[in-house]
Amino acid sequence: MSDSRDLPDFDALPPVEGMPKGCAWGVFDRDGHKDKLGCLNLLTADTVKAAYAEARDGVTISLNASMNLLKVPGGPRAATGHKVLSWAEDVSPSACGHLKVLDDEVSFNTQASSQWDGLCHFAHQGTGLGYNGVRVTKAGLEDPDERGDLPGLEHWHKRGGVVGRGVLLDYLAYTRAKGITYEPFSRYAITIEDLENVAAFQKTDFRKGDILIVRAGVAEALEGLNGEEQLGLMIKGQGGMAGVEGSEDAAKWFWNKHFAAVAGDTFAFEVFPPQKPDGSLGDMGDLVLHSYFLSMFGLNIGELWNLKTLGEHCASTKRYSFLLTSVPLNIPGLVASPPNALALF
């Protein structure tokens, strides 16, 4: 099944043994082949052609934050490193001393700035299984013979990257217009009702295969701060991060809208820390939307995108939809990647 017109709603998804209700494994399988793209299958030729109509003003906006956005010292993910190499001084001075040539080397963690979380990033924690029932391991992603069967981001290139209709829900601008205040660095949940209110306020409609983007103001609050200042914001918020509510009802809403992908400017797209069924606060393993989106729906999540300029342009033109393009790095077995995303108006 690959046509969005055939997609069952959340409550009608066929049960999958050992998995919670709402597991979409097998929905996009075709001709006996196990799917590796998930909801990107909704970007059909007709859907993409319709999205081209959004690019008519000659305006392009980058949605990518600086690769050294996060500078918090001592974090679990390495900061971006950039080394400039002079052929005359560093590569082979004796042989290349006369050459005026520069190279560079870059090292970074793919979670340290704007990113796509690929379908190998977060397994269903109870079973350890990833999207479509595969067991993703470090060894498997590093094995050239095994990783081809895993839903790594390199498979995006086989379909020509991602091109579709992007839709911005600018929650930050909406709250400013309505006199609502909140701290991006706090456990502030943006509810599904909030998202629907923003859509109504903007007069924004949704279509199957849309790429939904939510602006909450987190990434732009980090821009220009040093590591100690960023850490100060996080300490003040006691580790809380604003984001979309993490609940089964929220997961159901997203699936039933049949988005091709989702993204935002927050750390996890969903609010952190997550709330467990007993009402207590959990840790990363308790992220509800990550579990549904990545491991059960096959719905990629973009995080820490740079949405300030996009929000300002949408507000000035009263247009909140656009042609979105994105091409991750083409590395076999890649778990996450800078999005290299553009909005075209």
Automatic annotation (TrEMBL):
Domain of life: Eukaryota
GO BP of this protein: L-tryptophan catabolic process to kynurenine
One term of GO molecular function: arylformamidase activity
Family the UniProt entry places it in: Belongs to the Cyclase 1 superfamily.
Protein name: Cyclase
